[in-house]
């Protein structure tokens, strides 16, 4: 046992490392999906050689994939003098050939992985994996580099330190070099984004506009529309685009873009919101896991395309025989598995649900970041089910088995922790709850009083097509509520209020006060109202963050 190992284990024993919580993407056991077979010699994807090679290398190592570590920040402070050179050559260590590493792929023989020029023994680590060891076993004997290139959120000093604590040696320079060529960065060809977006994550790309920009216009301009990607953006040529349609057990059909266009063209207006919108506020209650979204993971746009119900009708779907409509995207994870999600068939087949296979956004061809050439828009439903770069529709008895449907985007009790969470016990989020946010002014702003009043603007929205019937705003902690003026989509039919409502209100303020606290809450047409605080709706993934929005602003004297 190396010195680092010893320290590591001693710390563990003293519980200074609170059980290394490893969250591993519950990858489905690899379907016999050769990427070849599924994506027809990758013809839609530029750089097919590199891409396939990357996937091939990655496929052998996916198990270790995607873990994030839960620990106290200071855990590794015990040796700050030690400059951790993760993945670099350690002259005092044994050299292993890749062949040797490859042999260590079982509990009995030990489980080794490589990163850069480092060799790591993760045998004990695998045991601590709450999701079971079977997934991690798929990583055994291979390199984790390609995976970390795809999920670059592993690129933190804490995770590097943890990895280095399991270091047992180095691989030869030649071996390391020969494998470098395999390391194609799957993010090398991402689209150019507008500088005004605040980036919450680079790889995969996640960004939102500033709140004040958001409420400037009813329709969110495409460059400012939030982006929540889960994987690298696929590059698809329109002439190569195909959409696979399947009814479980029977029909299979492939449409190209032209064939899709034979269905009637429809336009709807809908807001799309990320399940983690406003997570940064919930994270103040307790630590949670997720991208730190402010209030901007939402946008309102028009979506033009064909109705899913028309396509399903044409396919001859018997809606009583099935329960779900699954979607897959052309965006692939390191094992070649696509992004996936599903919605209930009742929603998919209902003409009044307005589910659209969209190819235009705000009257323009869909942009690459928003799903070119085709994405699903499921109005009133969490963004995660609005699958981009749509490659397949599968009518099934089952929900999508993807990680994003089964092991993510679910709500839990505030007392549920990463130690006792059972993702099977919660349903996947579909329709979103009522929510509002103050966008202008923003928290900590200094603002001017005009005629004894301050002006406050924001948005409100509810899932399932429920209309916003009122937004209440207070600046005396609820003693007096002021009803805001709403701007809404007047064309929307009852039960089909897919777009957001913008609101504004003038609040009388006491000239002598230097600071005011403003709260906003919305009420929807089912009289659902936002909860007062985040304390009792906290959940470990930081989803459904719809408590009153509360900000403090300074008044210009
Ligand atoms: C900290 O790192 C230094 C330099 O690598 C090493 O000499 C020392 O033994 C380490 N201390 C502990 C407690 O591991
Ligand atoms: C390195 O590349 C070789 C040849 O491409 C491959 O067989 C081997 O699995 C790779 N090793 C690692 C650790 O990725
Ligand atoms: C990891 O982070 C460092 C510094 O933050 C950066 O230089 C490096 O390119 C990153 N690596 C990857 C694979 O993203
Ligand atoms: C959302 O955008 C659409 C399209 O421009 C617009 O017609 C609608 O009024 C907007 N809704 C609100 C409430 O701003
Ligand atoms: C459709 O879904 C079912 C159930 O998840 C699955 O077994 C089947 O392979 C899927 N079909 C296609 C074509 O993906
Ligand atoms: C390529 C290389 O220098 N590898 C080194 C890894 O560590 C062993 C043990 O010290 C050295 O012998 C190797 O030279």
Automatic annotation (TrEMBL):
Cofactor(s), by name: heme b; Mo-molybdopterin
Gene3D superfamilies: 2.60.40.650, Cytochrome b5-like heme/steroid binding domain, Oxidoreductase, molybdopterin-binding domain
The protein's annotated pathway: Sulfur metabolism; Energy metabolism; sulfur metabolism
Primary localisation category: mitochondrion
Class in the EC hierarchy, top level: oxidoreductase
Membrane-spanning segments: 48-69
Family annotation (InterPro entries): Cyt_B5-like_heme/steroid-bd, Cyt_B5-like_heme/steroid_sf, Cyt_B5_heme-BS, Ig_E-set, MoCF_OxRdtse_dimer, Mopterin_OxRdtase_euk, OxRdtase_Mopterin-bd_dom, OxRdtase_Mopterin-bd_sf
One Gene Ontology term, aspect cellular component: mitochondrial intermembrane space
Keyword Iron set for record: yes
E.C. designation(s): 1.8.3.1
Keyword Cell cycle carried by entry: no
Domain Cytochrome b5 heme-binding: 93-172
Subcellular location(s) of the protein: Mitochondrion intermembrane space
Pfam families linked: Cyt-b5, Mo-co_dimer, Oxidored_molyb
One of the GO biological process terms: sulfur compound metabolic process
GO MF term (any one): heme binding
Keywords: Heme, Iron, Membrane, Metal-binding, Mitochondrion, Molybdenum, Oxidoreductase, Transmembrane, Transmembrane helix
PROSITE patterns reported for this sequence: CYTOCHROME_B5_1, CYTOCHROME_B5_2
Superkingdom of origin organism: Eukaryota
Protein name from the UniProt record: Sulfite oxidase
Source species: Atta cephalotes
Name of the gene this protein is made from: 105617346
């Amino acid at each position: 046992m190396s010195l680092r190992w010893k320290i590591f284990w001693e710390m563990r024993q003293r519980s200074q490392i609170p059980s290394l919580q490893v969250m591993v993407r519950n990858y489905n056991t690899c379907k016999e999906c050769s990427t070849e077979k599924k994506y027809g010699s990758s013809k839609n994807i530029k750089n097919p050689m590199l891409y396939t090679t990357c996937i091939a290398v990655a496929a052998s190592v996916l198990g270790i994939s995607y873990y994030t570590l839960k620990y106290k920040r200071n855990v590794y402070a015990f040796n700050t003098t030690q400059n951790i050179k993760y993945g670099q050559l350690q002259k005092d260590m044994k050299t292993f050939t890749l062949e040797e590493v490859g042999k260590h792929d079982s509990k009995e023989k030990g489980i080794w992985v490589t990163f850069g020029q480092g060799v790591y023994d993760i045998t004990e680590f695998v045991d601590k994996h709450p999701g079971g060891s079977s997934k991690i076993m798929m990583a055994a004997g291979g390199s984790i580099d390609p995976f970390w290139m795809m999920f670059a959120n592993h690129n933190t000093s804490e995770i590097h330190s943890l990895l280095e604590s399991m270091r047992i040696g180095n691989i030869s320079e030649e071996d390391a070099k020969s494998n470098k060529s395999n390391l194609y960065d799957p993010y090398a060809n991402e689209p150019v984004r507008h500088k005004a977006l605040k980036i919450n994550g680079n790889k995969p790309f996640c960004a939102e506009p500033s709140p004040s920009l958001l409420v400037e216009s009813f329709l969110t301009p495409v460059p400012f529309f939030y982006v929540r990607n889960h994987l690298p953006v696929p590059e698809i040529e329109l002439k190569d685009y195909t959409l696979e349609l399947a009814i479980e057990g029977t029909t299979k059909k492939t449409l190209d873009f032209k064939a899709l266009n034979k269905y009637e063209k429809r336009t709807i207006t809908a807001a799309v919101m990320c399940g983690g919108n406003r997570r940064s506020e919930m994270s103040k209650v307790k630590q949670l896991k997720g991208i730190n979204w402010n209030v901007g993971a939402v946008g309102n746009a028009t979506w033009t395309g064909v109705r899913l119900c028309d396509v399903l009708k044409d396919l001859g779907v018997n809606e009583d025989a099935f329960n779900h409509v699954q979607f897959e995207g052309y965006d692939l994870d390191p094992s070649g598995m696509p992004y996936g999600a599903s919605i209930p068939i009742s929603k998919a087949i209902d003409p009044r649900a307005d589910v659209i296979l969209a190819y235009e956004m705000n009257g323009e061809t869909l942009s690459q970041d928003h799903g070119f050439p085709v994405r699903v828009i499921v109005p009133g439903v969490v963004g995660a089910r609005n699958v981009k770069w749509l490659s397949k529709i599968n009518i099934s008895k089952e929900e999508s088995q993807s990680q994003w449907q089964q092991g993510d985007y679910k709500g839990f009790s505030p007392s549920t922790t990463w130690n006792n969470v059972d993702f099977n016990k919660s349903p996947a989020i579909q329709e979103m709850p009522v929510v509002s946010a103050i966008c202008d002014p923003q928290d900590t702003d200094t603002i001017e009083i005009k005629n004894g009043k301050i002006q406050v603007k924001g948005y409100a929205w509810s899932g399932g097509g429920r209309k916003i019937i009122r937004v209440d705003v207070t600046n005396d902690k609820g003693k007096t509520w002021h009803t805001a003026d709403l701007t809404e989509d007047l064309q929307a039919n009852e039960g089909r209020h897919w777009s957001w409502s913008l609101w504004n209100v003038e609040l009388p303020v006491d000239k002598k006060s230097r600071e005011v606290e403003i709260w906003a809450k919305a009420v929807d047409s089912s009289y659902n109202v936002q909860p007062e605080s985040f304390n009792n709706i906290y959940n470990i993934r930081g989803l459904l963050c719809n408590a009153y929005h509360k900000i403090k602003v300074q008044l210009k004297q």
